[in-house]
Design goal:
Elements: H1 3-13, H2 15-38, H3 57-69, E1 74-78, H4 84-95, E2 101-104, H5 111-118, E3 131-134, H6 145-151, E4 156-162, H7 175-187, E5 193-197, E6 216-220, E7 234-238, H8 240-250, H9 267-296, E8 301-302, E9 313-317, H10 321-333, E10 355-358, E11 371-375, E12 381-385, H11 390-404
Helix pairs in contact: 1-9, 2-3, 2-9, 4-8, 9-11, 10-11
Length: 405
């Protein structure tokens, strides 16, 4: 079968799923537009400020806007949150105190956050006397309710859920699954904070974790929520009491969220949120198409193609390192930026193994844009994500398939 014919066959098989993705995008676009209207967003909200940033309307209303979109009481949205890992770090340090316990109920967290939680002599939570426990997932990659019940105790102050798969082969968690485990955690008598790392999951479904029981959600603006427009930043949304504590860690205990200027202005952050539902839909369609095509060629990939994914990432398994590396390189060669660069595995900061990463993106490292990466070790999984336009995803797939076929 020729490449064009294979792609045509895959698109026909996916037509009904594409309709569902479009429906979700329209629902979320409506939610975002209603929030813009309800908050009376105007041109003056795009203006930057200097110095302390007292009375920075752009900053304040950006937080209110995200809070409404995510059905939360309060929000922090800031270019001063430098990445998803930084936003998670600020939030965890804001919520936890010495002798408290952080319990992750979604398995071992991914590489870059491990150093934050239990690194040695690097300023980690462990260095400041915060304990860490985690619950392994069951054999199907789902929450192990028995283990959760056994490990929840009075010292646990934050119950942590990683929604996306990281560098694992499990599915991302749906909001229904997150809602069910939140309800279970509360039934055990837990009165602390239920905390969700929401990276890669925003706008994939019609609901967000804060609508089904999560107290705090955290994410990066160079992933889903920034719509491919936000140049940097992160968000933290949830219950006001928790957001206030986090704001005091982000700035200073005596100041909280009253300061923070950004002279360049906020238009890209507002415009990114406006575009996010549509952009996420483009990424979902791209991931489905690549998953279907690779499956037709016999490559094992996750999640299952019998449903809409719960995040924008797709894991594709290869027989050896060479095939994995070549796949990721083809993604780079199909990029609009740095298409001439040949990716090489290297020791990226915060990771346990050598990583190869393709990200020929307009925003450096933005994984809402077409990108792929993974640790170069068995079972040789390439984690593919993003795509600002479905057309770009289809173009990249043609180049990848031409190489494979």
């Amino acid at each position: 079968m020729q490449v064009n014919e294979l792609i045509d066959v895959c698109e026909k098989k996916l037509s009904e799923k594409f309709k569902i993705v479009d429906e979700i995008a329209y629902f979320n676009q409506t939610k975002v537009l209603n929030a813009f209207s309800n908050n009376k967003i105007a041109v003056h909200h795009f203006n930057g400020t200097t110095g302390y940033g007292y009375g920075d309307l752009g900053r304040d209303f950006l937080g209110k806007l995200y809070a409404e979109v995510f059905s939360a009481e309060s929000g922090i949205v800031s270019p001063h949150l430098l990445s998803g890992t930084h936003a998670l770090t600020v939030a965890l340090f804001g919520l936890l105190r010495p002798n408290d316990t952080l319990l992750c109920i979604s398995g071992m967290p991914y590489d870059t956050i491990r150093g934050v939680i239990f690194g040695e002599n690097n300023g980690s939570l462990k260095d400041f006397g915060v304990n860490f426990e985690y619950c392994k997932l069951d054999k199907t990659g789902k929450f192990d309710y028995k283990s959760i019940e056994e490990k929840l105790n009075q010292s646990v102050k934050v119950c942590y859920i990683q929604r996306s798969r990281g560098y694992e082969l499990r599915d991302a968690f749906s909001c229904n699954e997150i809602g069910a485990v939140c309800k279970f955690v509360r039934k055990t008598g837990f009165k602390g904070c239920i905390f969700v790392d929401n990276c890669y999951g925003e706008f994939v479904e019609k609901k967000e974790p804060t609508e089904v029981g999560a107290d705090i959600i955290v994410g990066s603006l160079i992933k889903n929520a920034g719509g491919g427009i936000a140049p940097t930043g992160g968000y933290i949304c949830g219950k006001e009491e928790y957001v206030d504590l986090i704001a005091k860690r982000m700035t200073a205990p005596s100041i909280g969220g009253e300061v923070g200027s950004f002279e360049s202005g906020y238009r890209y952050f507002y415009q990114g949120l406006y575009l996010a539902p549509h952009t996420v839909a483009q990424a979902l369609k791209t991931g489905l198409l690549i998953g279907m095509a690779m499956g037709e060629l016999g490559y094992i990939n996750y999640p299952s193609l019998d449903r809409i994914p719960y995040d924008i990432t797709r894991a594709i398994q290869f027989d050896n390192a060479e095939k994995m590396i070549n796949f990721i390189r083809e993604v780079q060669f199909a990029s609009p930026v740095d298409s001439f660069v040949t990716c090489e595995p290297w020791d990226m900061p915060g990771y346990d193994d050598k990583i190869i990463m393709a990200a020929g993106t307009f925003v450096s490292g933005a994984s809402i844009e077409l990108s792929a990466d993974g640790p170069v070790k068995p079972p040789y999984i390439a984690y593919f994500q993003g795509g600002l336009t479905y057309e770009h995803g289809k173009y990249a797939l043609k180049k990848i398939l031409s190489k494979l076929v």
